[in-house]
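Training component of the fellowship. As part of building independent skills, the fellow (R.M.) carried out the full modelling exercise for a liganded target. The chosen ligand was NAP. The inputs are recorded below so that the supervisory panel can assess the work.
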Amino acid sequence: MIILDGKKTSNDIKEEIAVQVQSIVSSSGRVPHLSAILVGNDGASETYIAAKVKACQKVGFKSTLIRLDESVSEEELLNEVEKINKNSDIDGLIVQLPLPKHIDEMKVTEAIDPKKDVDGFHPSNIGRMALNIPAFLPATPSGILELLERYSVETSGKHCVVIGRSHIVGSPMSILMARNNNPGNCTVTLTHSRTSNLKEITKTADILIVALGKAEFITSDMIKEGVCIIDVGITRVKSNKTKSGWKLLGDVNFEDVKDKCSFITPVPGGVGPMTIAMLLQNTLLSSKKEFSS
Ligand code: NAP
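Fellow's submitted model of the complex:
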């Protein structure tokens, strides 16, 4: 069994990006710039944003964090987005989700200029992804493709089963694995909470991508020998074995399945770090204006 080491791979990618940033800065004097909007002070969102800002510093990007109060109106937030859309110094914009209930997330996502949509959530980028033309790919699925490619996991002709159909992971993942690309060219089955006989389906997977948000849901009796497992889930549970008093669990029971797999991503240290690396990659692409969405 081979561990798909997202921590190491993401560090490799960050080093590669840092080299490119140095060359952009020395040739044009311009520094790639990512702007993030954080509404309210949800603990998990604070952690994710802090990690993104730190990653920007590591590769030499400029970053701007705009904090808005929990009570900000939808209109005020949309105005802020528009200001960044018009600011030619800024290459990428992310609005940290989730947003407070009184704000329509889709409206905000659609307000972001697709050319600065480095999260890859804008309908224009999702459409371009589906058409297999250059687009900002959503960071988590794109990070998974990168891991599969860098570890030379064969995907062509394989049966890929995706669990979960969220807009940010499961749905785009199913599209990407079916595209006529490498990685890709899979026969894909997308499953969700209404899927009957899930176990019968997962047992036929050559590649199993699990993104449902239920700790240790996948066990050894649900998989076949030699499967490649990508565990996207992150659930925080209490633990008396860690200093912090909690630990992170994936959607896969790692200890139970590991001897049956060909490849597997650990949690933590698998998909999570890749997500941030791909956000940086998208921002670099945007700064180079390599394609227009
Ligand atoms: P989500 O929006 O929470 O949706 C969960 C999906 O799982 C839904 O499509 C749901 O089906 C499906 N589902 C729920 N129970 C199921 C069951 N028993 N059998 C089959 N399908 C079931 O998903 P998400 O935002 O993609 O998040 C999933 C997990 O990934 C979470 O733990 C999240 O924290 C983690 N995550 C990690 C990263 C990372 O960077 N590592 C990034 C994003 C998310 P329905 O559509 O029918 O409700």
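The panel noted the following from the submitted structure. The longest strand covers residues 33-39. The chain has ten helices and eleven strands.
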